[in-house]
Design goal:
heterodimer, A: 198 residues, mainly alpha, Rna Polymerase Sigma Factor, Chain: A, Arc Repressor Mutant, subunit A, 2 domains, 10 helices, elongated, B: 305 residues, alpha+beta, 3 domains, 5-stranded antiparallel sheet, 11 helices
Chain lengths: 198, 305
Amino acid sequence: MKRSDEQLVAAAINGDRQSMNDLLGRHYDRIYGICRRIAGNEADALDATQEALIAITRRLDRFDGRSAFSTWSYRVATNACLDELRRRKRRPDPTDDAVLALRLDSQPSGAVQSYADITADRVTGIDSIATALDQLDETFRVPVVMRDVMDLDYAQIAVELSVPIGTVKSRIARGRTALAKIIGTDEDPPDVQRGDHG
Amino acid sequence: MADETLDDLANAALDGDKRALEAARSNPDLQTLIDEHRRVRNVMRVTPPAAAHEYRQNHLEAALAVFDEMQLTAKPATPSASGSRTPEAVAPESSASGVVLLASKRRQKQRWLNVAAAAAVVGVGAIAAVSLTSIGFEGGTDDAAESSTDLTATTAQASLDSADAPAVASGAAPLDEVLEESAVFDADSERQIEVDDQGADGTSLESDSAPSSTTSSATADTTEAPADAAEVRVVFPEGPLDPRFVDCLPDFDVPDRPWVVSATVSDTLGALELLVGDDLNTLYHFVFDPASCVLLAPAEPVPDG
């Protein structure tokens, strides 16, 4: 019989390794999905997913059962992804010629996207929107994902990102508009692409 | 301007604003824009392609390795030689509900406090041993160990009237436990220091076992000693702040993964003073009672420089 998340959590806290494995395995795809959307590229998403799983493992005894485990774990994953983005900010941007060429071929303005990302997204059939999302600067992408993918309210997002709620609203509105316009291609996207957020 | 208004309305509609939804009924352009926004949102909600199997396996194995490490650290919870400790891993009530989880968490916190307290006592003993050596005390290994034990006890007794203090001062078994438990921290390369769960009035928090209360008293010895010896400053190795301390810090002002710069136990306040930094090298200063998690001073970022 399939055990509930709560049962797995309780067993894992008591040292049951298999329960910990089952718990993480059950939520892995969704956690990776959140990290993929927030990070905007495969490599960072994989790093963030790793960090998220470790964070969940380390903090499991802090889960008090007041919310669903899925909700709690996705919040932990979000924070791990944000950490990864902060670390990435201190690393130099990729300057690989092939990546730059692909970027220039596929988009009218400067979006940085890896070859692997582009290839993977083309295969999925939902490429245009997924790619457009990846092109958004993280300043706008992250709150949009937190709102529209994770269903967090504005106040929660403001807390997570440590910015005023008005800023959150503004960034989400601009991010959504930019996504729609990138996909619509009837005009150049506004200044919310990577490196252009000022 | 009109375009901005449409965008604003479309965003409001996406958040369920009835006024915006009403406006869309009479405005085809707005309705088109809303539909486009919804389409984008729906696609975003589709889970992206799964990570490659090899990544998945690696990630799970790494997390389980951390889990194993944590279990090893928790091993001292098994019965000691005196047989007086309740093994937490088989606590009968810790099988399911959220209430049980909270109870389990509380016991775990208590255990960590006790172990950290023991580590603090050992630290004072080590300092004393070094002091003795520096003033010319000579002796064999066993003698030196006994001397440091005695000095630890002396320091403790000089500062406290606690009835439990003699148990630390004279009992060889409790000291062995102290050494055994502190070795766990050494294995993790993670030094810990905390004050006990007892307030200045000596009120004890509940404890699962006699040895636990003994080590708690020992911590009080350390933290309430005279000013010239009582302040213990420990510089942690670079690493994430222990989750138990993160619990005490205010959510609104704490980075998700604070890194410890220094930790000081104040003898006067019985407080733990923490200087932690985040990934962006912003420093935060906290003073709080580690037993109750009550902040004793406003949390504030430390100016650069």
